[in-house]
Structure formats: C-alpha cells, structure tokens
Amino acid sequence: MAVPAGSGGAPRAGALPVVEARGVSKSFAGVRVLDSVDLDVLPGEIHGLLGENGSGKSTFIKVLAGFHDPDPGSRLRINGEDVALPLPPGAFRDHGMSFVHQDLGLITSLSVLENLRIGSFSRSRNWAIGWRRQRAEARRLFEEFDVDLDPAARVADLDGTQRALLAIVRAVHEMRTLRGSTRTGPGMLILDEPTVFLPETGRRQLFSLMREIAGGGSAVLFVSHDLDEVREITDRATIFRDGRLRATVETATVSDTELVQLIIGRELPDHSGEREEVVPTAATGAMAVEDLSDERVESVSFALGPGEVLGLTGLLGSGFERIPYLLFGAFPAASGTLRKGAEVLSLPGMDPVKAIAHRMALIPADRQRDGSVGSVSVRDNAMLQVIDRYSTWHGLSRARLARDCQDTLHRFDVRPPVPGLAYQSLSGGNQQKVLLAKWLAAEPEVLLLHEPTQGVDIGARAQIYDVVHEAARSGCAVLCASSDYEQLAAICDRVLIFDRGRVARELFGDEITKDRIAHECYTLADRAVPAGPVGPTEGEGEDR
Amino acid sequence: MTRTSNSEPATDVVVEPGRSSSATVARSLAQRFSIVIALVVVVVVFGALRPGTFLTTSTLQGILGSQAVLVVLTCALLIPLTAGDYDLSVAGVLMTSQMLIGVLNAQQGMNIWLVIVICLVTGAVIGLLNGAFVLLFGVDPFIVTLGTGTILSGAVLWLGDSTTISGISSGLTDWVIVNRFLGVPLAFWYGLVITAGLWYFLEYTAAGRRLLFVGRGRAVSRLSGLRVTRIRWGALVASATLAALAGILYAGTTGAADPVSGEAFLLPTFAAAFLGSTAILPGKFNSWGSFIAVYFLVAGTTGLQMLGAQSYVSDLFYGGALVVAVCASRYSRRKEVREAGSL
C-alpha cells in the first residue's frame, strides 16, 4: 500500500485539510486504475498532481467531481466531515469545490458576462436578469483579480489566455457565491491542465491568479504534465504512477531527478551531454520538411527517407501531434516548405487533394470523425481512394470491386471479412486495419499516422505494426505521431521529441526505448533548473 | 452543418446472408419491400371499397401520368439530400420554370423548345446561386434555399401578374401528357427513365459514391481528397436543373401556368424522399424507393378523396407520412446500430 511520503510536513500543518482521501480505489471491469490513494490537500496550499497518461490522476479528479463511483472501502473527508460516496454529481459545489477542465467549458458564441453567470442562470429562480448590476459586479471581480476582460466581449474573440483566465475567475466566483452555507469551508479550486496551450505570458498571469486564490485561504489542486510549472507554482506535489500514489513531496526540497524517477518509476542512466545539438538527420530522403510553423509549432525541420519509420512525440501541448495534419494540409500551416523529390511545395498552400496527388496518406487519430464513415459499408470505406480504377464506360465494375475488396480484407486480416457490413460494426482494431487498407491501396510514398493504435486491442496492435513495417519495407516513408512510447519503441527507426513546438531531441536505434523516451519528454519539460543536457530549445521561452 | 445528421437516415447495414438466419433475411426483405407492400395494400383496399372508380384504367393512367412531376422533383431533391444538404427551393424552381413557359411561350409566342432550354439554364443558374450562398458564405443550405425558394415564388406571382396563363403550345402537352406509350402518358416514362438514371448514378458510378461520402462525413471526405465544395455545389446545381425539368413537365401536364399551385409540391417531395429512404435500400436516399413512395402517397390520397374525404386530407396524409418516415428511419438506424454492436 502506498504511504504518502512526506505528508505532514506541509506548510500549514495542523490546519484541517480541505480534502482527506483515504484508501480511494476505482476499478473498471476488474482492472484497478486507482489503488488505495491516501491524499490530503490543505487550505491555502497549491498542490500539484503529476503523472503519466493513465497513471490515475484524472480518475482521482473524477471521483472528486462525482463522475466516478469509487470502489467500496474508499473514504473521503471534506473539511473534516465524512461524506457519503459516491458524491452525487454536482455535490462538489456544496462542498466548496470548483473545477476547471482542460476544455474550459466556455460557450464561445456568448459574451464574457453570460459565460461568467451561466451557472447562476441555471440555478436562479428570478424571472428577470439585472444586466446592469451584473455587469458592474463582473467588472469589480475582474479588477480584483487584475484580469483585463470586457464583460461585453464575445468569448470567441478572446485569445487562449483570456479564456483560461475567464474560466478560472468564473470557478473562483462560483466557489465564493456558494460559501454562504456552512459546509463549504475554505473551498478548493481544481485545475486540470489549463496551461497546456498557453503562451509564456499567459502562464505568468495564470500563476499569479492561482497565488492570489491560495493566499485567500482556498486550496488549489493543479494537475500538470510539466515539471517546470509544478516546481514553480506548487507548495507540495503528489505523484501518481500505475494507479497508485507514489509520493507526496515538498516541491522546494525535491530534485528533478527524483521527480522524474517518481513519475516514470525507474532510475535512469544519465544521458547528459550525449547529444549537443539536434540537427535532424538530413538525407536524400523521400521528403524534407523545412521551417514548418503554425500557432503551436515553431520552425520545425526534418527529413524522412524512403523505408524509414520516424516517430514524433512529446508531452501534451508540445505540438508534435499537429505535424501529420500540417503536412497533409488538413489545417493550414503559417509557413514552411515540403521538399519531395525535385519538387518544393509550400505548406501554407497545402490541401488534402494536393497531398494525395503527391502520394501522401494520412490516418488520423479520430477514426470516427476524420477517418471513415461508420454508416457506410466496409467496402465503400476501404475502396474510396481507388474507386476510379473500377470505373468503366458502363459505370462501376461492382463485381471486380467486391472481389478486390474481399482480397484486401483477407490480406489485412479484417474480421469478419464481410465487405457489405457497416464499418461501425467492426471492432476498433479491425476498423483501423480497414483504414490502413484504404490508404495503402493507393500505394502512398509517405504514410502519416497519428496515434495509430488508439482504442485498438493488443492482438490487432501487433498486426498493425506488421502492416506499418511491411509498408516501410516496400519503400514507403512512415511518419508516426504518437504519445504511446511503447509503440514508438516497437516501430520507429528514429524518434523526434518535441518541446513547446520545437524539435528538441532526436533518438536513434538502441536509444529508442519506452523509458528513454519518457525520460527525455519529462526532462525537456523541466527547464527551470537546466541540469543535464542543454538542448537547442532551452532558454528560448522568452520569445513566446 | 448541424442538419447533416438529420437529413441522413438509417445505417445501411447489409446483412450477410451466410451469417444470418432465415428469419433475419425475411425481416430484412420485408423492410426492403415494405413500401411496395404498402402500395399493394392501399390499391387493394381502395379497389375493394370503390371498384367502380378507383380501379379503372383512366384513374390509373391519370395518376401515373400526372404524378411524374412529383417523381422528377423528388429525384431532384435526392441529390442534395445525399450530399447532406437540404434544398427547399425545388418547388420555387419548378414554379419559375412553369411560369417562364407561360410567359415566354403562351404570351410572347416564343418557340417552345427554345423556352425549354431557357428554363433549364435558369434552373442551373439558380442552383449556382444557391451554391454560392451556401459555400462561399458558409451559410446553412436549409436557410439559404428557404430564402431563395420564397424569393422565387414571389417572383413568379409578379411575373405572371398573379393570374393563370393558358395556351401553352400543344407541342409540349403532346409530348408530355397527350401522347402515350403502352397506354400511359409519356410523362410517366420520363419519370421512370430519370429514376433509373439517378439510381444508376448513385449506385454504379464513382461520382455517386463520392456524393454519398460527402453527405455522410464531411471531414472524412475532405481528408480523403474529395473536393467537397465542388461536389456540394454540383449537387445543388443538379437539383435546381432537374426541378426546372419538373416545372416543364408540370406546364405540359396542365397545359397552363398558374402562379400558386406549384408550392404544394414541396412537402410531398420531402415525404416521398424520406419515405423512400426506408425501403429498397433502407437507410439510403434512393430513387426507386422514392418512386414507389410517390405512387403510394398519391394512391392513398386519391383513394381517400374518392371515399369522400375533403381535399385537405392530402395535407394530413403527406404530413403524416413525412413524420412517420423520418421517425421510422431513425428507429431502424438505432436498432441496426444496436444489432451491429452485438455482432
């Protein structure tokens, strides 16, 4: 059982914790994703929550929000009082808790004021809305937190920082208006990675807002991937790994190496100084990307050779996941060129039609929305890219189409191999195989993948790896953007690790292991204390 | 495009005969031919109740010939519906084209064949404009075509001076309703040919497949390299052109151009399109399903009127059929998704 290391040495020891979790567990279909978590959050502290994807930190937050029903034996005390579990949805409000999720929960077509008051509209029993009074109140609130927002502005016209600030001010405001009742106590603000897409100045503003809130006696629970941020802003931090709470530490006294070890669970050899500078391997490749930028990616360049499988990865918000879409023209780049053979294509002018004409293929992460039409047959989905080959003077040759589709389904081991079945009735793994079949049928020279095994069972995963390797063997250049380090280790010849929109590390051959990639990702995010390797992106935070 | 999902009916799960029991095969066949069965039932019931009037050759010939207009107009609507867009201006285009014939041919004495060409070109231009508003300004086609359709009915009243214009060249009426093949007016055969042609286009050509993908998944289509804008635009042009053809047939059927009656086509057209999508190829807008749906709806209303119902019964019947058809396609979609999930 996990013992919260170092709890008790908190800055405001002795104060009644806002939240005391004892033995909180949660299982899904017999799998424990949260295992006996004991966690205290004290009033007036900023408490960080760290861990990889799937470490259990989101599950814990969702238990607090009343979204998940924890396993029997879990206990939760709020402001010193035992509460019955599961918390009814929305009950967190009565306990003075307020959540800001990563999507912020704003309605962009409405005004700042309307968004600010949306919670009270839904509860209010008043017939009329006193707009003038509400506007004045909103102005006072923004002044108090030193946030420059116009209550009449449309949220759609705000930038990301302003939106995040609005969401947080709204949460604080809600916490306060509910404080009338005796049970709420000092209150707790829970921030689930609100900083991921913010520029540096936005982070500063957000942090000062968080400090003000904690200074007022409330607790702040801050979920983050970023060691740098957690170090800067939190008093204590709790690290989750594989569903367990590994430690609660005093942020000021813990070293980066210790934090990384707690997060990824292994002691890693020191790789310092191995690579001085990242010059992405320029080859006479299938293609070369130069100076690719958009709102979250900055001046990315790399080459990709025929037959190579290149992985792109990084933490959430590092921008790696945008690269396949930018290259394919799914959304526009701000600048950049793509050299393919003798041709130089401008990336801002790229679109899917052009990309396909240049023998590129994109398999997006969101199969349901971007990859396929679930209500149409497997055959029509699988054969869409090559359907013109079956056009004759008297229309489609449906017999030949059906035969070739059947062959393809057998070749890719799609189960059941029934061309007439609706696509959505296949399992995730088989859907993904059909998508690979669809795009490989067009014999692409460049295959762009994003999270290719998301929602795919283990057996199909291995088959998908085989398909990717087979494509590479036949000379296709493969680009795989993924946050699954194990998958990258399994299929890639080379991995580029992104940090804040730039390529920060390049790993080759034996270096590509799950642990090494994780280590690099987390140490890159930690830039406050530049111990160890000095990558090219270090010290460039000021210009964004 | 919030309305895309509304216009898209049930899922086309094609049950694999090898995997399913004979009961499921029977059930799926019953669903596919439900509309045919309904048509037969209606004919038999009204035939039994009013043998002297309903089941006469002249009644049948009348229905088959006059309703070809609705068949062609429904075919026109099916094209943008398949592409995921509503076109509410089809009735307006039909009226415009009919009134152009009245004014240019009956009043100005222009050659009927030249007028027909002008009508078709006008239809295509209206489609181009609809497409321009929808695609260049990114406006919901439901709203755009509601607007253009209303503008057109206003323009028709103005153009025809709110009166009925008779005296359309017999060249047109001969070739639409007077001349017969196998005892049935030529209009019926035109509708049949257009229905077959649309079926062929949607089912047997690559372009038809692309149209379907654009309707079912815009993002997927774009990322698959389909020229989504061009295809949607083309669908709106095709629908307006076909609607203009329906207007020509309407003028030929009645031998006159009146500025109001064409509006009554809008609802039956939608009813037939959605009702048709529950049969033959359940879950897909398809022209044979709609073809049979047209005649089912017309047989129903004609029979009721022969039983002595007032003329408003047709509104009740068409409106009811539309609501029932849309609900049925939603229901069968949910059911089939559920069944597919348990495979």
UniProtKB/TrEMBL annotation, chain A:
Gene3D superfamilies: P-loop containing nucleotide triphosphate hydrolases
Positions of the ABC transporter domain: 19-267, 273-525
GO molecular function list: ATP binding; ATP hydrolysis activity
SMART domains assigned: AAA (SM00382)
Top-level class of the enzyme under EC nomenclature: hydrolase
Ranges in a coiled coil: none
Keyword ATP-binding: yes
Keywords, comma-separated and alphabetical: ATP-binding, Hydrolase, Nucleotide-binding, Repeat, Transport
Alphabetical list of PANTHER family matching this protein: CARBOHYDRATE TRANSPORT ATP-BINDING PROTEIN MG119-RELATED (PTHR43790), GALACTOFURANOSE TRANSPORTER ATP-BINDING PROTEIN YTFR (PTHR43790:SF9)
UniProt-listed Enzyme Commission number(s): 3.6.3.17
The protein, known as: Monosaccharide-transporting ATPase
Pfam families assigned: ABC_tran
Keyword Kinase: no
Automatic annotation (TrEMBL), chain B:
Protein name as annotated: ABC-type transporter, integral membrane subunit
The UniProt record lists the keyword Hydrolase: no
GO molecular function term, any single one: transmembrane transporter activity
Entry-linked Pfam families: BPD_transp_2
Membrane topology: Multi-pass membrane protein
PANTHER family linked: ABC TRANSPORTER PERMEASE PROTEIN YPHD-RELATED-RELATED (PTHR32196), RIBOSE IMPORT PERMEASE PROTEIN RBSC (PTHR32196:SF72)
Keywords: Cell membrane, Membrane, Transmembrane, Transmembrane helix
One Gene Ontology cellular component: plasma membrane
Subcellular location: Cell membrane
Transmembrane segments: 29-49, 61-81, 112-135, 142-160, 180-202, 231-252, 264-281, 288-306, 312-331
Protein's organism: Pseudonocardia dioxanivorans (strain ATCC 55486 / DSM 44775 / JCM 13855 / CB1190)
